[in-house]
Amino acid sequence: MKKAFFQGISAGILAAIAGFVYLKIYQNALGTEFDKIINLGSISGASIFGCILMALSYWLLEKFNKEKWKGVINLLIAVLSFASIISPISMTLPLDIKNPELFPGLVIPMHFFPALAFFCLVPFFKGSNS
Predict the structure, then answer these.
(1) Is 33 left (phi over 0), alpha (psi -120 to 50) or beta?
(2) Which residues contact 40 (CB under 8 A, 6 or more apart)?
(3) Fewest CB atoms within 10 Å of the CB: 57, 68, 93, 112?
(4) pLDDT tens digits, residue range 63-76?
(5) CB burial readout 56-91, b (16+ within 10 A) else e
(6) Close Cβ partners of 81 (under 8 Å, ≥ 6 residues apart)
(7) Which of 42, 15, 40 is nearest to 112 (CA)?
(8) Number of structural domains the chain divides into
(9) Which residue range forms the structural domain that includes residue 88?
């Protein structure tokens, strides 16, 4: 369980770093300022929480000897990542935000960072979550 937790935390931190770097690059390149809506805390919290859930699901599959279901879990993670973009697309931003139409372009890619980070780190933790 400790190794699964460490995998989730590691992937979450990696995703949070990628999200923060992307936030800074996006805002500087397009001259936007979305700090009232999204910040390092929200990026980190969502990334770490999501990656811990992914690691927990992998750990449960290994604990119950259902590793053949990892493909189903991977598919579920991908579907949930796609489904999660509904929120930023339908979000109404405060009226004082400059260029609100650029907000989805910022946050939609970030919704895929936790899954990408988790899947990138899986080989380093393979078979070690028991």
Answers:
(1) beta
(2) 16, 20
(3) 68
(4) 898 878 889 999 99
(5) bbbbebbeeeeeeeeeebbeebeeebeebbeebeee
(6) 111, 112, 114, 115
(7) 15
(8) 1
(9) 2-125
